[in-house]
Amino acid sequence: MSTEKTTKRTVGGSAAERGLDFQARISAIVMAHLLAERPIGWLEGVLDDTPLELDAETGGPGDDIGFVGRDGKQVELQAKRGLQRGSDLWDALLALAFGISAGRINAGVLAVCPNSSATIRETLAEDIARLGMGRSDGLREIGRDWAERLSAASLDASLVCRRLRIVVISAVEGSRDAEATATERLSRVIQDPQSAWPVLIECGRRLIRVRGRAIPEDIYRDLSLARIALKTNDIGTRVQLLAAIREWLHRIYASTTVLGVRDTVPFEACWLELDVQVLNEGLAVQEELDKALRRYHEYGRDRRYGGQSFQSRTIARFVKKCVVVGGPGIGKSTLLKRLALDYSADGYLTLLVRLPLVVALVIREGRRFEDSLLDVALSASGIRPPFTSLDGAVLLCDALDECGHQQPLVTAALHAFSVAHPRTRIVVTSRPIGYRAGELSGWRHYELQPLSDSAAEQAVLRVLEAIPFANEALRSRAVAVAKDQLRAQTIKDAASRSPLMITLLAALSAKGIDPGSGKASLYRQLFLLLEDHPSPRLAERPPSEPERGRFLELLGWCLLCHGNEAAEQTLSRCARWWSEETGQPSLISESRVSACLEYWEGLGIVERVRTLTQEAITFVYKTFGEFAAGRYMSKCDLAAQRELVVRSIRTPEWKESLSFASHLGLAPLILEIWGELAERGDTKASYRFDDAIELVVQAGVPVTDDALARFAQCCWQAVENTASRARYAAGEALCLMSQEHWNVVREAALARLECSDPWDRLVAWTCLIVSPDQELKVPALTDELRSLQRAQPTDSYLGGLHLRPTGSAVRRHLVLGAASRVLAGSPEPEALQALNDLIGNAEQLNIGTIQQLQTLFERAGLTLTTMLDQQWSRNKVSLPTLSDWNREIAYLFELVDDPSIKHDDGEYGDEGGSLELAALLTATSYWEMPLSSVWEMSVPPSASMSKSLVIHTVARAAGLDYARVVRQARAMRKQILGNEERGARALFALPLVDAEAGFNQPLVSVECMPELEELILNGNEFFAHNSAMLLYGLREQPEYPSAIERLLTGGRGESLRYSAELASKLPYGVCQQLLLDRLCLGDSSSGCHYLYQRLTPPYGARHIEAIRKGLEGSSAEAAKAAAELAATFPVDGAIVSEWRTHFNQWKTKEKPYPKGGGTVPDSPRDELVKILVQAYAYEHVFLLELLADDRPNVRSVAREPFLTAAAASQSLRTTLIEDVQSGSLEPVIFSAAVSAGLYQGEEAMLVARLLHSSDANIRYAALPILDVKFLPPELVQSEGARLLTDVAMDIREGASRALRGLEPPNAEH
């Protein structure tokens, strides 16, 4: 007789519907006792059969139903309706017996209905119990038959029957006693058990269909969906605790507050979902307080790109242990509230705690960590939970960084808790500053990402829809105000910073407050809003409004001026200033400062942050502090203001505070001082003339014409200075000024329209064109545009690219101003042609300018066409058609399918909720694959079975419910095949969910190795990657080395990357031997560079052979990797000579170096030269050859050895001058030699003659010789003065610097 069933039915113990109903009702009975936490009574005297979880269609000995008892014992049950003596009886009993004997289950139950054979219900049931007591006497015929069957199967009758029972379950028509008992059990926890019973039966049916599993959380979820209320007044069970916590969480978090809005708003309505990005590298631990705070304030400024991003609301669904890091005001605590609402609604035991409170209980009262979690989570709820396990719970932990030096204790406790409760989900949040991963370093780490501009706009409008208004007309008006405000980039940038900023902007709109279009006016209104909003932590004597405001100003200036420092130093400094201003004793000042700090902490504007050893005080946003510092400057006396403005202009990091100060009334003073500094030659002022206008003129406050006129005169003087790039910044400043203050610029601009200096003339005309002047007519403009095309100054980049001012900004003003005038009416063809000629190929126009031009042309009913269109068309990537794309997606989902899972159309069909399918795409790295891999899924088509195996196995490794995955994939595939356009959108509408497959253990048998190898070698990258991960799980198997050898031998290109990675998991000696065999015996093909990178010391003769093979081959990538390996060897004469031969050979083998830009081709020479310069530094001719090489990396390596040799050789220095003059060498190496002081005395005079060269590059390279260290002062003076008129700006600037070097040291600059 077979020891196992030869076939398994897909659904239920019987194909008949009545049998299915019987099985579903038995499942419902088990679930009723599971909810009530009461024993079922079927196994009385055998084990405690209080169920903890239920399985349907287990595929095990019982097949139909399985459940885990309170003591962890596994019970399985076969359900047989109307059972009679025969094969069905004996097959079912023997399957249970084999399972008991083999230890697969701890007990088995054959469940029969009352209309089954009485011989089975009574006689056989009694005889089995008798056999279980070790008694074989007194058995009836059916009992003896059973005993003989056990003996024939070599099974111990006493052992088996001790744990085997036949029970009669009255759960059929006309006999519902068992159901009545179950309903009575339900009445203990459910308000209306009669309504709950049908829900449990339907739940049982669904579990049978999907072969699912149910725990209290799952059953509670079904009851909640059916609106079945639980009793929560007296909590005695886990499911009641779930319900009570859910009710409490939804009660306290149903609404929230918005800063600046007096009434509460619905939490769900204003929830703003952010993305989280996986942090693949650990956070840098920064102990230095100042650096840590600077890095902290960088968080949230911009979205990060390049890593995997997921929707924050899906955190912990499949990756169950994680840490979420977020910058100031980004919404870490709000995210935990959202997760608490979601997980509790899904039926999970959800605990939300602040970790500083938990650690306080552990340390102060010596409480167990687990008990402390429960106490803190439920402290304000009034819920008194029964003893309950936290396994399978959701633990949401806030503020890890605030635990300070106790962090190691907390992280160790969390790690130990996670090990003891593997099914528990744990989410920990922390600021980046002060965070130490400790024992959580192995957990998944995420960073909360700010919103994009477009998402931020929608978020502001969403909050406005949630804020209560007296009527809809007021709401509509606020929405209209917000939309108008969000057109300004400043407002968009602020909104995208964080949810806090979004709610503040929404509050401004709700109050009808216009923040203006400038940053200064925006933050001014935000501060007024904050000062008007009461703190939630009001003390008995809160600080007065003047006190609160002055504290912020002192704090802002303290942090700006003195940098980030320890909290005690900051507070001490603020208290000292407070005493100096008010005359109050220090103790009173300290008290008032402390009270103000507490007030602003309560509002969330100021916060305490900690490193492991220090605490600091900072603004939640750095910009808040910069605005406060600007207010401080605006309230100082005149002498102090002048000093602070000078410091601010000379300190670029203070730019924002200076801008705010200008908005607050210091604009005339800032212009005056800026002009004074520029006139004295202060480059930090003169190079930033345009900043002065942006900070002051565009600050949105009136500025006197006299102050502007003085500044404009200073700018015109700078424009006329041909020896400084400050003329470019000054030109842009004048253009900006002309737009708003044309009356100030007009006279000087009109006087320069016919100026002989092209730059003066260009600036003057651009000022006129961008001004509101109506006297300039289009025909006159058309004539002038033709000449202005040639007026653009020719800049020089003799010293390489730099960030100093250029004339491109004025050109952008010219193009946009001309376009606005020409396109204002019906443009004449001649004018339009002149404009198109001016735009040309859009050189020096940035993307923003091109977009503005596009808008202007569209408004005129025209199309902007430039040479860029042709350039962009050449760079377009060829994308697949919609039908091709959908075909490959449908093919992927076909591979996901599993025929053994019953079709259940309509279930799990909503793509927005297809979490398991989305998780599968993440676990298989689908979103990280190259586009070419994604749209070539069906290549090769013959490997579909192998591909399907890989996908199914990865899903299992990620812990996904595969039945749900299959049904969601079927629904998605149906959409794709039914509607191409909607199908493509459906894929990208899937939620972004994190999931991670565990590949450390074997997931497939060794018989699958050939299939995996085939996919790695011949499949696309998607399947190669996942196959390699599965093969990695077999690394302990004896067949693994042979598989890797085959992969290395047959691999090419990317398959060798996977092969090399898999080889590295072998023992060191085996790995190195296989790699060397492939490199020495195989061809040097693409992908071999991955193998070289895996070679490690100690090196020997075979490594030299491998290097030689790589250098002899045709693959530049492999040769380069071989050369990198060669560079690790000691310099040996014979070997180096061979490397020099290969160096010379690759001059012709490598692809030509692109002269005009483009992709730089690989070459081993960049690495070989590092070896050769060590061995042949004495060969001057060789060094000169290297300096003349086409490849910059080769020239760079040769530079220092050459300069060292030239310092000791006059002839080499002379040769350098000759070769530079002849054009054999680039002047840059000559410039380095001159700067290094290699030319002195008579040689210096020779260099000085090169200042007269017709080649500007040579003149520029010789410029460092203009120094009294090398030449007589009178020669420096005469040559410098002459070069002030040079055609190249770089040379004029260099000459100007040389002349300033002749001035006395104490001269004022």
TrEMBL record:
Pfam family, one: NACHT
Domain spans labelled NACHT: 322-465
Highest taxon listed in the record's lineage: Bacteria
The protein's name in its UniProt record: NACHT domain-containing protein
